[in-house]
Input
Amino acid sequence: MDTLDDHSKYSENEKHSAKIFNSRLSIHLIGIGCAGSNLIRDISLKEIEGEVRLSVIDTDLNNLKNLQIDRNIQIGLSQTRGLGTGGDVDLGRVSAQSEKDRITKLIQGDDLVFVFTGLGGGTGSGVAPIVTKIASDLGALVINFVAMPFSFQGRNRSEIAENSLLELRQLADAVIPLPNDILIQQGREDVNVIDAFKEGNQWIEEAIYSICALLLKTGLINVEFPHLRKVFAHKGGRTLFAIGRGQGENGVQDALNNLIQCPLLHISEQSRAADHLLVNIQGGRGLKMPSINHIMRTVTDRFCSMDDTIFGATFNESFEDEVHILVLGTTDLDSGKAVASVTSLESKRFEDESFENELFTKPVHDSKKKESEEETRQGEFQFDLDDTGYFHQAEKNYYKDQDLDIPTYHRRNIQIVI
Amino acid sequence: MSTVSTYAAIEIGTSKVVVLIGEILDGKTLNLLGVGVQKSKGVRKGKIVDFRAASHCTHTAILEAEAAAGVKVNFVFLSQTGAHLVSNFNKGSTLVRSSDNRVTKEDMKRAISDAKSKQLHVNRVYIHYVQNPFYLDGARVEDPFDCQGDRLEVGYLSIHGDERTIKDHIHVINGIGLHVEDMIVASVASGASVADDSDKKMGVLVIDIGSGTTDYVLYRDGYIVKTGAVPIGGDHITNDLRFGLRVDHENAEMIKKTYGKAIIDPSDYDEKIWLRTDPEGGLTIGDRQIRKRGIYQIVNARVDELFTIIQDELGGFLDPKHIGAGLILTGGSSRLNGIEKVAGSCLGLVATKTPISSSADPINSPENSTVVGLLTYALKHPNEGKTRGKKKSLMGKLSTILSF
Output
């Protein structure tokens, strides 16, 4: 058995390397169940439409028939006779398991898989974890968007949803829950049901479009697929996800305000701070560097992304003075990474500073470099930077790139009058 | 005697280990029974770098205090300091679920658990949770129960530290067969001892400058809104003087204590002092004169940097309008001449020092504000020692890292 498994893994790797040579990123959007298929039906990915594969997996035959999606899988025919699961999670699970091979074939070769489903029902809660696991095992980066049931749908349903959410967090690289309750809270009085759901789906559409555009289009500042993988290096933690939009003269500030007020940030299932953050800014040709700097400063400050922030910016021809910001982050839960006492002092502003430095340090001309080297060669008393005297035993203290154990007057270049 | 609990407040500081033994009578009055002070060894910047040396001086201090008090210690309260301590302000928010938009106890519970649920890295452990007021749709409410609104928010200041550093401290106490009842962050303890309730209500910033670390705590409207530690203390001033004036550690310490000024005082900065190498005080070869200006420059640069860092750390919290009671400086290094002027101008607050009384009175000296605060804390939370199991509270804290 073992050898067989090894062999299959080996061939898997080979396929992967072949794909790298192919260098075409394969993105796949899979809707599961009724909620999933609705999204797939309605989603519009604008100019990158053709580059993302769309599929639907459902137990309900009628539902599938109405769809215009070329790739769909009907599962659990022998279990449900094509009538849906009726809220039975086990039935959904069994249905998916019996069609494992077909699902594997569907996902095989994908780099990035978005799974969308509504949790709490039989198909969503039963099938989604299995699809996620298959995709994850095949080596794809899996991002789940899950709709959580309305609280009026009862405790039973929400319990099922909560359990599946926990299960998905272990399996997927990122899970973004979208409680349906928000639709009620945010919806104005005059919005009809269809529009309310559509508005909810718009968040997902925007997010998927934003991530895909980031990867597929050549932008102002590019983000490659490995970057995205790095953000989601650790599974199991909560995901942070928010979108902000702004338009007009104060588009940047509006977008930031909109982002911070994003209702998705105020639900308990979401994290409010992130250790790894991906920020994507979409804007028109008028987007300026100081604006980007301002956005990044505010965002890293707000979400305390101490460790790293990956940042991309893309131009969108159709945007004039519109600005969209997408924030996607993860928290380290079990990374086992040490937070040494030295890092604890570095405030979150340090992060900004280094980011700024990265962006704005001008390249130094070779002649200049030599000059500074020569300066240090002058016969002046040199302070041994490693010698912190009394503190040589203790751990070093860094604060904003400065070793605090080295005398302040020395770092500030104060001439001491003795 | 059986109804009396004896508490020991222990601070394993960078320069000294202080053990105060007090008893609490009828859960109200605090009686100071004994004091044990030892020069600490093997501790740098609040961190134990030499375990055996640190254990030895701590144990000696405990025995000294027990001998002076004539009682055995029941409960130990241990202070924690060091730059590894970080306070995070986490906001928990929830949508009010009931159809009539009235806040239920359930909503409050959910908001609180949400605020507390920020996960930590594996080797970090929570020390305190400090609750801040509730906000309902952005407006502050003392008790939101049954109020009407959509979004309920509550802030929690969670203070967490490095698990290993904390375990090292606990291990020292365990080594003598005592159990640590609870840990209190030094800044919170100092705040409790030097600021009274009306200060806290008006808003006050307490900065405790020790020898290895500086702890600060900011109260606003009676709540702790920010606390932290900067790994700079009096030792840094001494070390800077040592390098700047090319003198040895003892002389640098002497210069700091006798002539040190945090401001560059033009009235006497051209004066010179004699640096004597002879312990008898006589003139010998190698003696030299040092101009006071150099001393002031070195000390000023360091102190200025310290307050600049604190200012930076406080960021938007530093608003003089909300800190009516100003700044209180305490800790051994607050004895430094003129330090309140630098602090005041740097932070834009009215700065005062805790009054320095004779060193015979351990309760009122600025060096001991942390350890006195620890005992005060024990007095305010007298039931904790009795109701909880011996190690339970501590294990509870350590176990938080294991739970989800």
Observations:
- The first strand of chain B starts at residue 5 and ends at 12.
- Chain B touches chain A through 58 residues (CB under 8 Å).
